[in-house]
Specification:
The structure holds 2 protein chains of 2 kinds. Helices cover about 0% and strands about 40% of the residues of chain A. In chain A, the strands form 5 sheets. Chain A has a 4-stranded antiparallel β-sheet, with no helix packed on it. In chain A, strands 5-6-7-8 form a 4-stranded antiparallel β-sheet, with no helix packed on it. Chain A has a 4-stranded antiparallel β-sheet with strand order 9-10-11-12, with no helix packed on it. Chain B has 1 helix and 31 strands. Classes of the chains: A mainly beta, B mainly beta.
Chain lengths: ~260, ~450
C-alpha cells in the first residue's frame, strides 16, 4: 500500500489496495486480521490500481487515485460497485501517475502529487491544483513544476490549510542501474530525497519555501509525510531506510514563510 | 507487497547502529556493520541506510544534489536532524533455502537489503543471536527491496530478486560476502517476488505480483534477455502470485496466490512485454478489482500464455491466508506453505485439488512461528525450515512436525525479545490524533 488516511471525525482508517483495485475503510482501532467496514471495488468505480487516497472531511467526500491517470471523487461512505460522482483526467488536466492527494477546503481545491515517468532525471513531476468541483478534463488552476522546484519522483503530500502550505515528499532519484558502474546501486546517493514545503498559492518553476534535506536528516527516499499538530511534529517515512523519521516542526514552519528573494511565487 | 499497517507509538522503538564512522567506505569484501547494543542512538541513527544499508560514502558530495537556483532562493530549514527515529537495526527474514550437502542455509533480508548465510546447524542456545557465515550487502550489490532467495546447487550460485524497487534478479557467487558486485544481473518485470530453479529443466521461474504472471528464463539469463515463456492471462487465475516451485521431476509449476485481482484484466501471456516507464497503446480491458480466495495453483511446466491451472487448492477448508513461500517435498509428495496470515505452516498433498484441509499444520505458541514468510525443506536431514518475518528468528522442525510443537533449533539474528518493526518499503504515513499513534502502511 502506498497511501493511508486517518479520519479523526469518524475514527476510521482508509487505505488503497493497489493490487486488488479497492479502497478499504477500517475501524480506527482495527488490529490483526480485522475485516473492513466498507469496500469500494468493481467495474463501475473506475478504480484500477489505486496508490493513494484522501478524505475531504469538510465536504464528506472520498478522493481516490484511480490507477488509470485520474482523480475520482465519491461520497465518503460509498461502498460496493458504484460510479464516482466526479472524475478529473485527460490531456488538459495533465493527470498521470498520482502518488499523493489532499484537499484544501478554505481554498476549495484538490492538490495532486503528479508523476510523469520519463528517462533519466528528466521529469515533469508536479504539484497540480484543481478546483474542488472540477469534473472532466480541466486544466489545473496552478502547477508547481520544473527544475527549480527539485520535484523528481513526488510521493505523498500533506496540506496545512491554516497556513496554506503544501508539504511534499520528494524522492529525488531514479532507479537507474548499470552493473558496470563502480557502485551500481540503483539510486544515486548524491541525490537523496527531501521534504519540500510550498505555499498553496505558488505557481510555476519555483523553489520550495522550506525543506528538510541533507545528511543529518537521515532521509534517503522519503515516501510519506504527516503532521502532528498537537505536538508540532513532522513525520516522514522512508522507503529505502525502512525508517520513520520524526522532526520537531521548526519555528519557520509555524510562522508565515518569508518572501523569496527571487523567482515568481 | 503485503497488505499491512504498522502502528507505531511515537518514540516507542528507538535503535542504533554501532560501529563504523560516517564517511568511511565499506571496503570491498567487508560486511556492513551490524547493530550492537542500543545506545547513543540519535547521532548514529542519522547514518541509517544512507545508501543500501551501508554508511554514507559521499557526504561531501551532497550539495551537488541541490536543484538549480536554490542557492539564491530564500529557503528555510535545511539539514535538520530528527528528534526520534523508528527503525529496526536487525535483519528481517524473508525467504530461506537450505544446502544440505554443504551444510549452509541462506536467507534474504528486505530490511537491511542483504543476503545472509549460516551454518546449517547453528542455533541460539539462549537469548543470543547467531553470527552469519557471510553477508552480501552494500551499494555495489545493487540490491534494493529484496524478496526471495534461492540457490543453484549445481553452479553454486545465489539468486535473489527485487520486489517493488529495483526490478532485477541478481546472481552472486556461492561464497560471496560483503559489498560485492553480482556475477550477473537480469532485468525482470516490476514487483517480482518468488524464484525457483529447476536443475532438470535448466530453467528458473519468477512470480510477479501486480501483473499476475510467471516468467520462465533459461538458467544463466542476464541483461535484458527475454523469458522463454510467460504464464499470464485471465484463464490462469493467477492473483498476486508469491511463492513458486518449478518441479522438473513432475513437469509442473506450483504457485501460491494471495488472490488479489487488479482492475485491469491481465494481458495474455503471449502479448509483447511492456517496457518499464511506458504505457500500453491498448491497455487490457477494465473489469474492476476483486479479491479471490487465496490458492495454491499447479500448471504444466511447459505451459505458455493464457492457460488454466491443472489443479487448484482453494477454499475455506484450506485455511490459506496470505500464502507466501512454498516448497515441495517430491519424496513425500507434499507442499509446504508459509501461511503468513495465521502464523502457520500448512502441508498439503502435492496432488490435492479443491477445497481440502491440509494434512498437517504447524501452528501455536510453542512453535514460535510469527508471520512466516519463508519455508524450505531439507530432505537429506528430514527437516523443515521456517523464516519468521514477524520475529528475528528462523526455526527448524522435524519434517513430519504437526500441531503446536517446539522447534528443534532456533536461529536468532537479534537478541531474544528484540522487537520487529516490520517496515518493508513503506510508502505513506498518517497521524491518528485520537490515539496519538502514527500509522504506516507497508
Amino acid at each position: 500500500m502506498h497511501g493511508i488516511f486517518y479520519d479523526h471525525i469518524h475514527d476510521e482508517i482508509v487505505v488503497p489496495v493497489a493490487l486488488g483495485g479497492a479502497i478499504l475503510t477500517l475501524p480506527g482501532d482495527a488490529a490483526g486480521d480485522a475485516p473492513p467496514k466498507r469496500v469500494l471495488q468493481g467495474p463501475k468505480t473506475g478504480i484500477s490500481q489505486p496508490d493513494t487516497v484522501f478524505v475531504d472531511l469538510e465536504h464528506d467526500e472520498l478522493i481516490v487515485e484511480s490507477g488509470d491517470d485520474a482523480v475520482l471523487v465519491f461520497p465518503r461512505t460509498a461502498q460496493g460497485d458504484v460510479a464516482p460522482s466526479r472524475r478529473i483526467g485527460g490531456p488538459n488536466s495533465g493527470v498521470s501517475n498520482i502518488y499523493g492527494l489532499a484537499t484544501d477546503s478554505k481554498r476549495d481545491c484538490i492538490i495532486v502529487a503528479n508523476r510523469v515517468d520519463g528517462p533519466g532525471r528528466a521529469s515533469d513531476d508536479a504539484i497540480l491544483v484543481f478546483n474542488r468541483l472540477d469534473n472532466g478534463d480541466p486544466k489545473p488552476r496552478t502547477k508547481i513544476a520544473g527544475p527549480h522546484t527539485g520535484i523528481i519522483k513526488i510521493r505523498q503530500v500533506f496540506v496545512d490549510e491554516e497556513r496554506g502550505l503544501i508539504y511534499a515528499t520528494i524522492k529525488n532519484n531514479f532507479e537507474n542501474y548499470n552493473v558496470a558502474d563502480p557502485r551500481p546501486s540503483p539510486w544515486d546517493p548524491n541525490k537523496t530525497g527531501f521534504i519540500g514545503v510550498w505555499s498553496i498559492d505558488d505557481n510555476g518553476d519555483v523553489p520550495p519555501r522550506a525543506v528538510i534535506k541533507g545528511p543529518a536528516t537521515g532521509l534517503v527516499w522519503p515516501a510519506g509525510v504527516a503532521i502532528n499538530p498537537k505536538h508540532q511534529e513532522i513525520y516522514a517515512i522512508d522507503s529505502v531506510s525502512n525508517a520513520l523519521f520524526m522532526f520537531k516542526m521548526p519555528e519557520f514552519f509555524v510562522k508565515p514563510p518569508a518572501s523569496p528573494a527571487a523567482g515568481a511565487r | 507487497m503485503k497488505r499491512h499497517i504498522v502502528f507505531a507509538t511515537a518514540g516507542l522503538l528507538l535503535f542504533s547502529l554501532s560501529g563504523g564512522t560516517p564517511g568511511e567506505a565499506p571496503a570491498e569484501g567487508t560486511i556492513c556493520p551490524l547493530p550492537g547494543t542500543p545506545a547513543g542512538f540519535e547521532a548514529r541513527l542519522l547514518a541509517i541506510e544512507r545508501e543500501n544499508g551501508c554508511l554514507d560514502l559521499d557526504q561531501g558530495a551532497e550539495p551537488a544534489s541541490w536543484p538549480p537556483g536554490w542557492d539564491k532562493a530564500t529557503i528555510a530549514g535545511g539539514d535538520v536532524a530528527p528528534i526520534r527515529v523508528v527503525s529496526d537495526p536487525y535483519p528481517t527474514l524473508h525467504s530461506v533455502v537450505v544446502d544440505s550437502e554443504r551444510n549452509k542455509v541462506f536467507m534474504s533480508d528486505p530490511n537491511r537489503h542483504a543476503l545472509w548465510s549460516y551454518d546449517r546447524l547453528a542455533a541460539s542456545k539462549g537469548r543470543e543471536q547467531v553470527e552469519p557465515l557471510t553477508g552480501i550487502r552494500g551499494p555495489s550489490t545493487g540490491m534494493m527491496f529484496v524478496a526471495a532467495v534461492t540457490i543453484d546447487r549445481e553452479a553454486q550460485e545465489i539468486y535473489s530478486v527485487d520486489n517493488d524497487i529495483g526490478d532485477r534478479l541478481m546472481v552472486f557467487p556461492y561464497d560471496g560476502s560483503g559489498n560485492i558486485k553480482p556475477k550477473r544481473v537480469l532485468e525482470v518485470p516490476h514487483q517480482a517476488w518468488g524464484i525457483s530453479i529447476s536443475d532438470e529443466r535448466n530453467e528458473f521461474a519468477v512470480t510477479v505480483e501486480s501483473s499476475r504472471q510467471i516468467v520462465i528464463y533459461r538458467k544463466g539469463a542476464e541483461g535484458h534477455e527475454q523469458p522463454l515463456r510467460t504464464i499470464r492471462g485471465p484463464k490462469t487465475g493467477l492473483g498476486d502470485p508469491h511463492g513458486v516451485f518449478l518441479d522438473g521431476k513432475n513437469n509442473e509449476i506450483v504457485v501460491a496466490n494471495h488472490g488479489n485481482q487488479g482492475g485491469r484484466e491481465p494481458a495474455p501471456g503471449d502479448a509483447p512485454p511492456r517496457q518499464r516507464g511506458t504505457r500500453s497503446a491498448q491497455p487490457p480491458p477494465f473489469v474492476g478489482g476483486r479479491f479471490d480466495e487465496p490458492s495454491i495453483a499447479t500448471y504444466n511446466a511447459d505451459a505458455k500464455g493464457d492457460v488454466a491451472a491443472l489443479r487448484r487448492i482453494q477454499g475455506a477448508r484450506t485455511g490459506l491466508n496470505w500464502p507466501m513461500s512454498i516448497d515441495v517435498d517430491r519424496n513425500r509428495n507434499e507442499i509446504a506453505v508459509a501461511n503468513n496470515g495465521d502464523s502457520s505452516i500448512r502441508i498439503f498433498r502435492r496432488t490435492d485439488t479443491g477445497d481440502v484441509a491440509p494434512v498437517r499444520i504447524i501452528k501455536g505458541p510453542r512453535t514460535g512461528i510469527v508471520g512466516p514468510m519463508g519455508v524450505a525443506y531439507d530432505l537429506k536431514n528430514e527437516e523443515i525450515w521456517v523464516a519468521n518475518y514477524g520475529d528475528h528468528t528462523a526455526l527448524v522442525f522435524p519434517i513430519s512436525a504437526s500441531g503446536n510443537v517446539a522447534p528443534k533449533r532456533i536461529l536468532r539474528n537479534a537478541p531474544a525479545g528484540s522487537p520487529t518493526v516490520g517496515f518493508g518499503n513503506p510508502g505513506a504515513v498518517a497521524y491518528d490524533s485520537k490515539r496519538d499513534e502514527i500509522l504506516v502502511p507497508n
